Amino acid sequence: MRKKNIFLICIFIMVFPSGCNDRQELEQQSYVVAIGVDKAEEEDKYDFTYQIANPEVGSSSSQGGTNEPPSEIVTITGNDVLTATYTANAFVSKKITLDHTKVIIVSEELARDENFLRVLQAAARTPQIRRGVELIVSKEKAREFIQLNKPVTETRPHKYFLSILNRVTRSGLSPNSELHRFFQITEGDADLFLSTYASAIPSEEGEGNEDEYLAGQIPKLGGSPTQFMGAAVFKEGIMIDTLNGHETRLVNILDPTMDIENFITTFKDPIEPKFRVSIGYSQDKDPNISITYNKDKPSLIEVTVDFKAEVIAIPSLVDYSQNPDYQKRLINQIISELEEQTNKLIEKSQKEYGTDPFYWSLFVRKHFLDVKAYEKADWNKVIYPNAKIKVRYNLQNLEFGKMLNDTSLEEVRD
Amino acid sequence: MLNNGSLKTREIVAILSLFLGMKLADSTPSLLAQKSQNGFWLVPILSFFILLPSFLLIMYLLKKYKDKNLIELMEAILGKWFGKALGLLFFTFVFLSLSLDSRNYVEQIKILYFPESPTKVIFFIFIGIAFFGAKKGIEVIGYTSWIAFPLIKFSVTLVFLLIFGKIIIQRIFPIFGSGIDILMLEGLQKASIFSEIFIILIAYTATKETKKFRHGVYLGSIFAFLEIILFYFIYTTVFDYNSIQKVAFPFHDITQYIQFGEFFTNIETIFMVFWLFAAYLRFIIFLYLITMIFGAIFEIKKFEPLLLPFSFLSIMIGLLPLNSISNELFLRETLFMIMSPFLILLPVLLWIVALSKGELRS
């Protein structure tokens, strides 16, 4: 009996400590929040920039406040994301862990390079990097972007990226650019992938209405220098162009796999053209896309978008709410403006890009029985560029907010 | 021990649905997707219906011959020696699939959760625990499965709910994936992904009345079948047809991807616990049933001491393949392909012989 007990104790001693093989103390790890990737001077090498969160900042345990910065930023030249973390350990004191990475930032220079897919593939292979990580293309070098990005109030980097990306995708200014989506679209080899476009260096101020900017061009004063606006367009894993915020919004409206909630934008005032009317756009339903596939002649793509609008501000003070005729003209103006812009975007994608950023290839698939036939029909070279596309916007209701009518300017100044 | 079994229908359902249903969360889907692309979720449907006649046939025979388990049935119909020889062949198949499967599970645990621990250590601990579980006997296995069943299924349902928003239904088109001919062939060749429903027949006499066992097996296999189809459907719709081929462990990829709202990210460890629990149970059941088959062939009434050598042997065989990819994509696939015709034809052979001997008339 005693022998048996000793034997059992020995077994337990052998078995249980083996669980400690993979132990990692929280104290001994550095959590990377953002990874920046740039081309290095040497060919086939890349500069990896890691933004490592400092857990002490902003936590309740350090109410006295520390003087340490909220994050540490290091740059290392290396082959792939994971190998470089080990080199970085020469001067980062803890084990670098990528489990909590929120974003991968890629410089536009690298994104336009044909080797871009290699770097990203290597990153996706690492079990630590999740499919939910967002891909961001920065106009400048990713290293500079991370260094210059100094959020004013949300100083903790993970919180910052979480909230800003959430906000820009909800309002449609930037697309949802998860790594998962990137790989599904790139490997599917039919559509264009859109990635969030950002910049921390203000460039020449752009002109146009409230959303017709690219990151860096927004005229603004104060706040964080970083701007997230518009999208980088990827074809077959290589960046080919950028879309401004307005075009990105249209793509988000037309792509049923994107979640767009609502946003406020302006349309030309149909009665007094020098003013613009502010409209809150909201969309409860995904757009309806029906594709009639014709083998020998151009296919027909019909898209119907049901949306709701709410008049937010009428600077011209025209009485839209109670004059049915004016109302009709306003509705027509909204719809025709949307349709015109959409058609322009579609034409650009058909002629310039050769394929669509709307992920519409999903809807032609049901016309084929197997992948071979589908790939032979060739969405991005034959079907889409030659298709006849009709987009119809359908205004379901028009609300006027909480005011029945605006004060007439003449009455006030009387 | 065998003759005074006391399991109930619900325990058989739990055992079978854990034993077979675990296939939704290992690397079987990526094995199937290699050739059939996004049509791979249809393969188990085809396989199930290809295997169904044979399965019903053997259930019919078991009912006719009363109170005999699978091996005893084979001996009764085919004669002692031929029956034993076929039984031994069956045992070899099952044992090989245990070894390869266990390696596969160990690799998943290692790659995803314990990257720094040596494979051998994980293997020994994994099978070691399965051994201790199996040692407790079929009743305990049955109760444990029944208790664990709701918990495990709840976690699976949670995964389903959380991934629901990421599903894009249109991805199932083109409906036949890489082609209907390939799907049919795959369905036939991989029919043995449902081999578990045959393996469990060795425990035919483990319930009080065999009627309960039959009900349990029918219910359990239908449940596991639906569950597998549902999850393969999710994999097809979450991953596109070119991507699904590249994903080695779709279930874990999904648990890494989902988040509980915006604040609770990286929640895969919660699911890992339930997954591990299910995996242990699966191997406890597997190990126990295999030893039972061996015991039945060699007429060893007290077969439980054999659990230890078999556990050890399965570790040794499981450690042989160089890496998990060659294990999964080559060895396991080959095993499936050899086992499928065996499982399809065995019941037919038994039935023909029994019919010609005139034993079915009474």
UniProtKB/TrEMBL annotation, chain A:
Its main location: membrane. The keyword S-adenosyl-L-methionine does not apply. Gene3D superfamilies: Nutrient germinant receptor protein C, domain 1, Nutrient germinant receptor protein C, domain 3. It is found in: Membrane. One of its GO terms (cellular component) is membrane. Keywords: Germination, Lipoprotein, Membrane, Palmitate, Signal. Residues 22-194 form the Spore germination protein N-terminal domain. It is a lipid-anchor. Residues 229-395 form the Spore germination GerAC-like C-terminal domain. InterPro entries: GerAC_N (IPR057336), Spore_GerAC-like (IPR008844), Spore_GerAC-like_C (IPR046953), Spore_GerAC_C_sf (IPR038501). Pfam families: Spore_GerAC (PF05504), Spore_GerAC_N (PF25198). It comes from the Bacteria. One of its GO terms (biological process) is spore germination. Belongs to the GerABKC lipoprotein family. This is Ger(X)C family germination protein. It comes from Saliterribacillus persicus.
TrEMBL record, chain B:
One of its GO terms (cellular component) is membrane. Pfam families: Spore_permease. It is a multi-pass membrane protein. The keyword Cell inner membrane does not apply. Keywords: Germination, Membrane, Transmembrane, Transmembrane helix, Transport. It comes from the Bacteria. It is found in: Membrane. The chain crosses the membrane at residues 41-61, 81-100, 112-134, 146-168, 217-235, 270-294, 306-323, 335-355. GO terms for biological process: spore germination. PANTHER family: SPORE GERMINATION PROTEIN A2 (PTHR34975:SF2). Belongs to the amino acid-polyamine-organocation (APC) superfamily. Spore germination protein (SGP) (TC 2.A.3.9) family. This is Spore germination protein (Amino acid permease). It comes from Saliterribacillus persicus. The lineage of its organism: Bacteria, Bacillati, Bacillota, Bacilli, Bacillales.
